[in-house]
Write a structure and sequence with these properties.
39% helix, four-stranded antiparallel β-sheet, 256 residues, alpha/beta, single chain, 24% strand, six-stranded mixed β-sheet, globular, cell inner membrane, Rossmann fold
Amino acid sequence: MAELLLDRVAIGFPETGPVVDRLSLAVASGDFVVVLGPSGCGKSTLLRLAAGFARPDEGAVTVDGAPVTGPGADRAMVFQDDALFPWADVRDNVALALRLRGVSRRERHAAAAAMLARVGLAGAERRPVTALSGGMRQRVGLARALLADPRFLLLDEPLGALDALTREAMQTLLIDLWAKAGAGFLMITHSVDEALLMATRAVVLSPRPARIVDTVELGFSRRIAGGESPRAIRRDPAFEEARERLLAAVTERTAA
């Protein structure tokens, strides 16, 4: 079982001061860890450390004990703004990682088509990404990240800019993809309900500099992966109990 470990990491910047303060967090294969916290507390910086886009001032980031010194094929990241290439069509955006690995055009086009079908975009291979809706663009971003076959998928508020109906559909899709991929997922969100539905573990951060103030183990995502509807789960008294605990952690324990 693979493990992504942030071990007592700390980082700061001259313009902001300390951002993350000796924080430890582990994500294993099959985990869906969701991080919550106040705006500006360091959530995205934490994800950048995990991705290798930033280096900690103290502590270490490792994958299976090997130091993370930069981005790597074992980790893929999905951004809120989808970060697609506007000059390329859907298929070429999705197949980018395979192209960089030297995979033949025929193979990468076939793999991209299969992954697009998994995210509900069968037949959209040749469409320009500039013609897609926000939800469709995020599906393309997910397909691109998953086609790289990472051991860890890092998601920086990937659903934050979507409307409510699209966001609900994307939550279910992400859970399905997580359940089938076997990879570890680490996601940032501002939504307590989203964390409850999707996480196997929700982690609450303090105001900056970020420290972990609470951790809540959850199991609703596994029920959704098993076929239960999110709306039915929301009616479960256990969901409301978990929601009250997580809300208390976010509102009471993150007060500056």
